[in-house]
Batch of 2 targets.
Target 1
Amino acid sequence: MATKHRSNSSFLFLLLLLHFILGKSQLQVNYYSKSCPKAEEIIKQQVTELYNEHGNTAISWVRNLFHDCLVKACDASLLLETVHGVVSEQTSERSFGMRNFKYVNTIKAAVEKECPLTVSCADIVALSARDGIAMLGGPNIEMKSGRRDSKESYVKVVEDFIPNHNDSISLVLSRFQAIGVDVEATVALLGAHSVGRVHCMNIVHRLYPTVDTTLDPTHAAYLKRRCPTPNPDPKAVQYVRNDLKTPMIIDNNYYKNILQHKGLLTVDEELANDPITAPYVQKMADDNTYFRQQFSRAVLLLSENNPLTADDQGEIRKDCRYVNAN
Ligand code: HEM
Ligand SMILES: *[C@@H]1O[C@H](CO)[C@@H](O)[C@H](O)[C@H]1NC(C)=O
């Protein structure tokens, strides 16, 4: 008994030591329960209202989570705009097609009105993604909060983290692996491509001068009608929806599509063919419940990448677009 007691207390001591060495507080479920009890309710209400006005805002919140969290940390660095001394991550080629950033300000303003300088933009990115996923018929995910905001943009290294549309699956897997997202979870995250759109810019290389032989011919003909020229104007609003059957629902239709060679991006097509990912693609196509479980787990892993949590790390931004003045 005495020995057990001693080993328990040395275990606690070790934990305490680790806490100080790592210098980290933890993310927590309902982190704002004392400092801003209505925070999560307000965010959810704003996400719902925005969804009712512009359904595609919910889609943007899902993509934001990927582009914010995979680049160093979930720290709202993505939201910083270009001003003196700062170049926005939104100007990276990898951010092509991202939209609805202005409505993040709507959410932040509603939260600021209730609790000034309390709720981080990084948590707004994370929680709006969670609520957006639920609006899009995806799973309800219990997500932690307590992330703080970066004081800088990482525009120079965005391409070291976010894969390109035509990168290999092994590169994609290694990028996710580096932040603790395993193969199964990576396959599940790509299921986000069951909503939203792809601009012709990112498709035409599979259509012209010759059609990519891996594409389903009927689908290729459809894509050529949607994208009739090999050199679309990057500013033109010419695009194809990811999932023609359920374009606004996060479901396993993505996996059915890519198994039928109707994926839009090269990575989508490759995900179905690569021997490492193919078994999971098949399993997710066969079983929507399994997909939803894996998608929830994967979103949590992504959302917990390397958060700033200590008081001396980052800040709580007043305006998500700018580092605080001081
Ligand atoms: C290998 C990884 C990935 C690559 C290369 C990739 C690439 C792309 C590209 C090129 C687009 C189309 C942009 C356009 O033409 O407008 C897109 C759209 C999108 N991606 Fe990904 N993506 C990846 C992973 C993810 C992940 C992990 C998520 C979220 C969990 C995600 C969410 C989305 C969403 C929601 C859209 C539609 C955006 C809209 O309609 O506004 N993607 N992605
Ligand atoms: C991938 O696409 C980009 C344009 O987005 C192009 O510059 C690059 O050459 C392509 N890479 C491969 C391996 O095809």
Target 2
Amino acid sequence: MIRRLLLCLTLALATAACGQAPTDPPAKQPQTKPAAAPAGVTAPAADSGVAPRINPSRAMQYVREIVGMGPRPVGSAGHRKLEAYLRTQLKGDNVETDGFTATTPAGSFPMRNYIARYPGTKEGVIVIATHYDTLYARQDFVGANDGASGTGLLLELAHHLRAGKRNGPSVWLVWLDGEEAFQVWSATDSLYGSRHLAQKWQKDGTTKKIQAFLLLDMIGDADLSIERDSNSTPALLKMVEQAATRLGYQSHFFRREVPMEDDHRPFARAGVPVADLIDFDYGYANAFWHTSDDTLDKLSPRSLEIVGDVVLESVRLLSQ
Ligand SMILES: [Zn+2]
């Protein structure tokens, strides 16, 4: 993902170029102290249940296999390989391929979002999404964290969702295409898959059914610290914080507040409650981000486990 304003903030705070990030609210200072637990976050006393835990080594194996496909920008052999892999792994599930043609500064490209639907007993939908493409401009970029970590973790989550009809709303897993810019990140050169799907779902009324849209991006960093994204829905962040606290993982969440531009934004604009779970401090001052250093050795199965468990627990809390 890209966030120019934040990048500037991360790099140094305040060169003239940093003033460009136009319509967004100004970046806030990173907070180093953990926020006090917000009021109303405590779980009801009667609720002692906890969601099942993910299998971290299986999740990591998915990530490893995806990284092994090499760079996976839109239009590449690696991208096609990953699409085939997703279809194979999701065989037997209810999967929709949402295909469309995107006009980019590098030409027109066919793109495909993949949506796997797991039914629940109640009305409504919880969406868990990630992007599976990698940076277009770099041939040496394998996107272990930025691309593969979320893609692999969603495949792991599918094991838990296909286990049987869940008590609660349906859960849809969404692998979005074309998140990365082809040239320079802008409103029109970025988020191709999410802009397409949000528009489609707004048109057909689906957005009204979505109770929560949880986005996972760059969640494999061994030094895991998920941002408090000020472009996310506060009530949903509170709920995620509650889930993290219940599992004892709260030290990995929400120490720093930043506004993120990511695949959740088109859905937020369509009126959907959203939460972007992203660690945008990957290496010192985000040094590994969008570089050839975004490799498997920087990742940890423990980080996938922390985020995966918090997502499953969040789904459980949303299902009550
Ligand atoms: Zn990226």
